[in-house]
Design brief:
The protein is α/β, with parallel strands linked by helices. The chain has a single domain, classed as D-Maltodextrin-Binding Protein, domain 2, CATH 3.40.190.170. Helices cover 46% and strands 18% of the residues. The protein contains 13 helices and ten strands. Strands 1, 2, 3, 4, 5, 6, 7, 8, 9 and 10 form a ten-stranded mixed beta sheet that branches. Helix 2 runs antiparallel to helix 10. It is globular. The structure holds (2S)-2-hydroxybutanedioic acid. The site of (2S)-2-hydroxybutanedioic acid (LMR) has 9 residues, from loops. (2S)-2-hydroxybutanedioic acid binds next to loops.
Length: 331
């Protein structure tokens, strides 16, 4: 009798354990997508679109949780957090990978790409595709590039020629190329997180910064920066990135659908980026809070002449043939 009872109890425990395992394995895979910009930006919209597509295609199996505005991690922490498994997806600017690879520095070289079509051509070409794996050894894989747009220079004083930037403090992303670019015009670069830029500008702790029209508009930099020089001197694009361990650990069928949804969300985000580069610029003009300075070809050439020597400085780290491939994308 006692023995029967024991068998029954053991059986019940086994059934309960099996049930709990079933429940646990039925829980959806959670993908935390952390980013630093506002929701109404190319990246914000791309992230939300991805969550929507995954909900459509993998409902109950995968759930994407989006954390905008540096709510979860700033870009200085997000990649470490990703390696530790605390976040699964992010899209930091290509300027924020110096701890992980030197090759992506190519995107920061001033006046490298003549427009976004050239950026797209380079990214889709063999070198751009190879660069997606540049961080793999460090446990991170690029799943794609996302556009924001060309960068402009905003400042408290008009910047027409490089001499106007001399001695001024500019916030930059954590890139040595960007530091060299500002030093090349006699300015003082300061590496600061995106979340601090508005306050630094508002309190006049710094004189200026560089960013896309979308970021200048959505983070209200134009309200505290009376001048924006339309320099188009560099590109602000993103590396949509995940942890290799997480990505390769996914079931094959799930990974395939996620990649398809991500490609669709990126294409959508790129469309938003193209629209915002025009629309947000116009909204800034309409606000009358900031004057947009259009450079004459001769003025622009002065910026090119001053900043372009930075290419040589980083040629060994980046690779001459990569730079040549980027230049060729302008044709
Ligand atoms: C910046 O830090 O200025 C940008 O990279 C922010 C972003 O993600 O667009």
């Amino acid at each position: 009798m006692k023995r029967n009872k024991l068998v029954l109890v053991s059986l019940l425990i086994a059934v309960a354990f099996a049930a709990s395992v079933t429940i646990a394995s039925a829980a959806p895979i959670v993908i935390k997508f952390s980013h630093v910009v506002a929701e109404n930006t190319p990246k914000g919209q791309m992230a939300n679109k991805f969550a929507e597509l995954v909900d459509r295609d993998l409902s109950g199996k995968v759930k994407v949780e989006v954390f905008p505005n540096s709510q979860l991690f700033g870009d200085n922490k997000v990649l470490e957090a990703m390696i530790l498994g605390d976040v699964q997806l992010a899209a930091p600017s290509l300027s924020k990978f110096k701890k992980y690879t030197k090759s992506l520095q190519i995107f920061d070289l001033p006046f490298l790409f003549k427009d976004m079509a050239a950026v797209e051509k380079f990214q889709k070409g063999p070198v751009g595709q190879k660069l997606l794996m540049a961080t793999k050894k460090k446990g991170l894989i690029g799943l794609g590039y996302l556009h924001n747009g060309l960068k402009q220079l905003s400042a408290s004083k008009p910047l027409r020629v490089p001499g106007d930037a001399k001695g001024k403090k500019f916030r930059i992303m954590s890139s040595d190329v960007l530091a060299a670019q500002f030093k090349a015009v006699g300015a003082m670069p300061l590496k600061k997180p995106f979340s601090e830029v508005f306050t630094l500008l508002q309190t006049k702790a710094i004189d200026g910064q560089e960013n896309s029209w979308s970021n200048i508009y959505s983070k209200k930099f134009y309200e505290v920066q009376p001048y924006i020089t339309e320099s188009n001197h560099g590109v602000l694009d993103y590396f949509v990135i995940t942890s290799a361990e997480f990505w390769m650990g996914l079931p094959d069928d799930i990974r395939t659908v996620l990649k398809k949804d991500l490609d669709e969300a990126i294409a959508f985000g790129n469309k938003v980026a193209a629209e915002k580069a025009i629309g947000d610029r116009q909204k800034i003009i309409d606000s009358k809070r900031s004057t947009i300075i259009e450079l004459t070809p001769a003025e622009r050439q002065q910026w090119v002449d001053a900043m372009k020597p930075v290419w040589k400085q980083f040629e060994d780290q980046i690779g001459k043939e990569y730079i040549e491939a980027a230049v060729a994308a302008n044709k």
